[in-house]
Amino acid sequence: MKTAGSIESHAELAEAGREFYRRGWVLGTSGNFSMLSSREPMRICITSSGVDKGKLDETGFLELDENAQIVQGFGSPSAETLLHLTVYRALPKVGSVLHTHSVWGVILSDVFLKGGAIEIKGYEMLKGLSGVTTHEHTEWVPIIENSQNYDALSAQIEALLHDNPGIHGFYLHRHGLYTWGDSVAEVRRHVEIFEFLFEVVGRALRTT
Amino acid sequence: MKTAGSIESHAELAEAGREFYRRGWVLGTSGNFSMLSSREPMRICITSSGVDKGKLDETGFLELDENAQIVQGFGSPSAETLLHLTVYRALPKVGSVLHTHSVWGVILSDVFLKGGAIEIKGYEMLKGLSGVTTHEHTEWVPIIENSQNYDALSAQIEALLHDNPGIHGFYLHRHGLYTWGDSVAEVRRHVEIFEFLFEVVGRALRTT
Amino acid sequence: MKTAGSIESHAELAEAGREFYRRGWVLGTSGNFSMLSSREPMRICITSSGVDKGKLDETGFLELDENAQIVQGFGSPSAETLLHLTVYRALPKVGSVLHTHSVWGVILSDVFLKGGAIEIKGYEMLKGLSGVTTHEHTEWVPIIENSQNYDALSAQIEALLHDNPGIHGFYLHRHGLYTWGDSVAEVRRHVEIFEFLFEVVGRALRTT
Amino acid sequence: MKTAGSIESHAELAEAGREFYRRGWVLGTSGNFSMLSSREPMRICITSSGVDKGKLDETGFLELDENAQIVQGFGSPSAETLLHLTVYRALPKVGSVLHTHSVWGVILSDVFLKGGAIEIKGYEMLKGLSGVTTHEHTEWVPIIENSQNYDALSAQIEALLHDNPGIHGFYLHRHGLYTWGDSVAEVRRHVEIFEFLFEVVGRALRTT
């Protein structure tokens, strides 16, 4: 496993945050970015609650243990920290988790709500998702009903990942995307791939 | 109350202006940004009329008293200064007021005109508005008929805020958004939240 | 009259070009920017043909006389230079002329072709056009059939401006906008105002 | 023929890559950029597989021979290298080939699939394509069914270019654009022209 918590990754995560802000995917202090510092015992590095992602630097992160208690850093963790921890526990190869809010993703989470997942198939860009080797692939992004009860959400997501370990992300309805990868570089690529494909699917559906 | 007129806030307001210009929300010298320097006696710092917001710095601001008379600085105040003063008088905790013009906001002010307000509900991003703690919230952004008579507009807005002290902004029809916060950081976040949600609602309504 | 040909204006024009490129209004070496150096005898400073506007600096300009002959500089003038000269001759207060190509403008020039002009009314942003003092204004942007015969086009535009001296611009069908002002700052503002309003009108018409 | 492999062109290609990334045309490590270093024997300089185009510099390129074997540089060539080599062999004046993935292009490759080509006609911007001298031109961008079998794709494209030597690009269905030019500057202009026109055609068709 990669030592995801290295100094290089830390700066990489902050840079991804500033860039995603510029593109409108983490406006208004929304979004959360994390990476795994250590798996045994579990330690994650995650953005503090309420940080402006356009100015994200190393002071915007906290180090937390498996119970979401602060090990290092100033500030308070977001309630959504629980969902990050759930992803790391459920998927043993994950080194970084990103959560973003975009216009097209939010719209598609409405459009595809009845079907239970955003369906994306037949695009070459799908090959940017880890392990996908052909455009003849169908990616399902499960849509989870949004809630302010993060304990309940965590349990729901734990079950989802147990049943669908091959998915690359899920969407909280009218809220935002969670996606992950073995490294910061990989999960950053996953965000770009999903956002590109959400825009293609959204515009093609005339939902604009 | 925060000392909104500190040197730090001043630079922060100019930076917000340059960034909002880059995003197309204050093109063509449109928009006005202000912050409270002192409440008793009332002193506000506000952009001069006709300033290019893409190059906004400390020379682009005037200090005015409660009657919109210049206390300090060169240039002339915009006619819209009266609306800023009205907001500060009506809402005692407000430290900064921003006025922006965006494509999606202008379109929604037409689409929702008959209902009297832009209605936004069910989105997680609503939690970026001060005091909103759940996505199960409905935000109403009242639409006010545009006018070149700013005295009349001020009276109308004073009444609006008296009756609806919990709103986070209002929209002048086919003109632009007024929103406010206790600090520059908060009102800047409010603009980003509203613009994100206007785009989501606009695209989802197929009004594009 | 302003001495539009001053060194400051020259740099301002190059900066406007780079910024408009960034926004996608002069892609692929399209667009032409000019300013008046002297009215008697007429001398204009104008971008050379084929220059990448993203890198525009003082080496990208030619000085021409009233017959479009080069007085100073290297390169060759665009065929569209004739239209710039026609505007300066027809409108005695004009100090700068900008020609841009945008997605929304091109689309509206199709949508409004039958009516002969892009019609824009009721928006506050119209006040950014020189001399307009209320949103209760209707701006007509005449649409001219595109042609590669610039002598014929010049004659047509001369007649247009003679009959409609109060317009702020015209549109060559499926080609681009011509707009002008007494200074570089004013015409730059006019481009921003028109592009903002084209996008609003275009999206509102569901032509997207 | 231009010495396309000069140091200046190399930096120019990297700069084009970073700029295209910024515009969203090569997200998620998608896209490939190449230029001819020598025609006899054939040597091309091409981006390595999996490179982030937002940070493209001279270390992101490989030099390959006519059989796609590495002559110089570290990394592995993309499978799509074969298509670049096919274009250089089929069209003797080509000095650079760019492959990009954009939202509007992907959508149009679906919309125009039955007709076999994206049809673009009547726009002034077409004059930005090499050799086009009037807006009264129809450009056909053939749509090729996407495949992971690049040998078969190469053969298909060789036949396409043999029969249609005057085209300026082709589109792999739901995948991306291939376009070329005698120099990096020319092909970069072709990408900008195509992307502008794809957006115009896409929005005008109401496929958004």
In short:
4 copies of one chain form a homotetramer. By secondary structure, chain A is an alpha+beta fold. Helix content of chain A is 34%, strand content 23%.
List the keywords.
homotetramer, 208 residues, alpha+beta, 9-stranded mixed β-sheet, 9 strands, disordered N terminus
User: What is the structural class of chain A?
Assistant: alpha+beta
Number of discrete helical segments of chain A: 5
| Distance N to C terminus of chain A | 42 Å
Largest sheet of chain A: 9 strands, mixed
Residue share in helix of chain A: 25-40%
Looking at the chains present, what oligomeric state does this protein adopt? homotetramer
Q: What's the Cα radius of gyration of chain A?
A: 16 Å
Low-confidence stretches of chain A: 1-5
The percentage of residues in β strands of chain A lies in 15-25%
- Average of per-residue pLDDT values of chain A: 92
Protein chains sharing the most extensive interface:
A-B, 23 and 22 residues
The helix/strand series of chain A, from N terminus to C terminus, equals HEEEEHEHEEHEEH
Number of strands of chain A: 9
How would you explain this protein's 3D organization?
The first copy, chain A, is of the alpha+beta class. In chain A, 34% of the residues lie in helices and 23% in strands. The first copy, chain A, contains five helices and nine strands, in the order H-E-E-E-E-H-E-H-E-E-H-E-E-H. A nine-stranded mixed β-sheet of chain A has the order 4-3-2-1-5-9-8-7-6, sandwiched between helices. In chain A, strand 3 and strand 4 form a beta hairpin. In chain A, helix 3 crosses helix 5. The radius of gyration of chain A is 16 Å and the shape is globular. The termini of chain A are far apart. Chains in contact: A-B, A-D, B-C, C-D. Chains A and B meet through helix 3 of A and helix 5 of B.
